[in-house]
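Review form for a predicted model. The reviewer records the input and the model, then writes brief findings.
Reviewer: anonymous (R2)
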Amino acid sequence: MKKLNLTKKFIVTFGILLLFLFSNFSVKVIPVHAMTNNDQRSLMADKVRAIRAIEHIRFLSEKIGPRPSGTKEEHKAATYIGNTLEKLGYEVEYQAFPVPDQYIGSISFSMYGEKEWQVGAASNASIPKDPVVGLVVSIGKENDIKNAPEPIHGKIVLLEQADTYEKYNEQVEYAAEKGAKAVLLYSMIGDRGNNGEAFNPVLKKKQSIPVFGLAYNQGIRMKDKIVHNKNIVSLKAKHLMNLNSLNVIAKKSPNTRQIMRM
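Model under review:
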């Protein structure tokens, strides 16, 4: 199962690096009664650096957003980090390398004035450039789809992803046979027991409807939208080819030649 290289790992990686760059935290314990003016200034400087680090992380996650490998959003993030390092006196070099094609889906809630979600799309299902608009219904667990309380014909079906490749393919095939407009599978468990991430479903058979892989949190939020009657969505997808990702290589100075790679 191919994980969509979005965001969380990328955000955490850059977040940790930026915290090291801009925070310079100290683990030394300073008794309050013994604190000098210099100590107070040092603590204040650490606080300012931490705030700046958070601002950088916020810019990457909110202003640029999800950054799958090889996309223009990832390149924007690399340029932003490179520019930031240059301002700190580093010599910066960008190193390009090829990455696999990306299949990226989007779920739009525009009629409710809300931001769209970026998710994974199955490579051998429909990749709709024109929006697929429909009502989302939640079926629940893998065994519930054949006993769904309401018809799924013409609906966009939200399902908990079954725990095996065979079972979640059965989910998709059954929904397609019954006339679903699209299938949204949300991942239950990710790496190391964390909540599941957005992913690219791997299908045994080519499907004529969109099949998207959502993160666990997206699936739970979608269920909440259904409860609050915000479940009419628009789906689109794209296939990006001939992609190159970027390493950001920063050298400290001509004297030390200290090298940092991101």
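Findings: The chain has a mean pLDDT of 79.
Further findings: Residues 2-98+244-261 form one domain.
Recommendation: see findings above.
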